[in-house]
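Q: Sequence in, structure out?
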Amino acid sequence: MNQIVECVPNFSEGRNRTTVQAILNAVTSTSDVVHLDHSMDPDHHRAVLTFCGSPEAVVEAAFRAIRTATNLIDLRSHAGVHPRIGVTDVIPFIPIKGTTIEDCVRLAMRLGEQVGRELEIPVFLYERAATRADHAPLEVVRRGGLEGLAFRMASDPKWVPDFGPSRLHPSAGAIAIGARLPLVAFNVNLRSQNIEIARSIARTVRQSTGGLAHVKAIGVELASRGMVQVSMNLTNYQLTPVQSAFQAVKVEAEKHGVSVAGSELIGLIPQAALEHAAVTSLQLAHFNPSHILERRIAEAMAIGEQDKFDQTILEFLSAVSDARPTPAGGSVAALVGALAASLGVMGARIAKQSDGETNLLQLSRRLYELVQEDAAAYETLMKAYKIPKEHPTHLSTVSNTLLKATEIPLEVAERACDVARALHGLRQVVKPAVYSDLTVGMILAIATAEASLFTVQTNANCQINQIVTESLQAKVIKTRESLEELRRLC
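A: Exactly. Output:
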């Protein structure tokens, strides 16, 4: 599967296993979707599902889950400690492979429109998908709970939903649908029944009230377990590792004379987050992800598998020189960008810059994926051009496929600028012997961005739908500005 999106919907049901299983069945009945995890909590009265798949399949699975939850759950008889605004409280889309945050924004909008139209539930777009800056934080949408949202919808014109009716659904409430990057949902349980202690600690550790960066936190009561909890979302686990959040809660709890009973994850955690926590806790020097046995084995096996079907360099050169339209300029530019990023990985490993290595390794792999994606998009475009002009779908098909063939080189240009910027940063810390290699990589990355923007402009000039062209202009302008700045740095 070349494109993978993750979805982590939260439902207001944590006690009835039959209901949660029905929602899960709605997800797993969708083709090209893989169920990864699900959990229930009776105190939060909440279920969290995690699944992934192709973008189109994930949207379909999410809609089926929402529809099932709407039919089975009545928010009017719901009581739980976790804030919520709906039967299906929140639906985030997260880019995993071959997709961008912008792709996930489009998925959020597509799902929101369908939910509003077919299920008549008001939808508020949040995080990266938000159409209003003041709607972006999820906690703002949830502020005051269902009653607070109902009041804002009735009294404030700024709180008209993005999709659906301007009133709450009688039994399903509303839904927040958005796009975000991976986060860690992490809870710390305290040996106390004093909810005010948990709330005080949450206020101390969360960013919005002066605490840790990229940490959201609330204090909740766990009546069934006879304790309280600090429930957190870590939205950037690299800047604030799980271990740092845990220690902050533990220190504050000790000030109140309370001990920590344990911690728990909700949903799944990226491997990098655990690595980061271990490195922070153990104070490991010169650590990088290549030191992990399982990762090294997986990468080695993946390379071995790729040898069975991936082109060698000679085969790629032969394919480019063949009298066929693909692979061509777009794929070549992406490959050059991937090579530039790989030079950076080498430099980062020599300089023992683990964060830089991880970043450039991801960029190199993404650019390599774009080599094939560009070729596939162009072949699809060629097929669209062959549709007879008098056919009713000719113009729309050409416009849509041309958009994809334009978005891919635009992403190549954006990622190439990211590579060049990272290489420039590394040049400040490496030895002179490596400086020249990183400069070569920076020159190649700049050339990749320049060539890709040329392809973008060429395809944009062929676009019939000017609204589509104009929607890309902001990104093009921003990328050109980045490119000019990088030229000066080089």
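The domain at 4-179 is CATH 3.30.990.10 (Formiminotransferase-cyclodeaminase; Chain B, domain 1).
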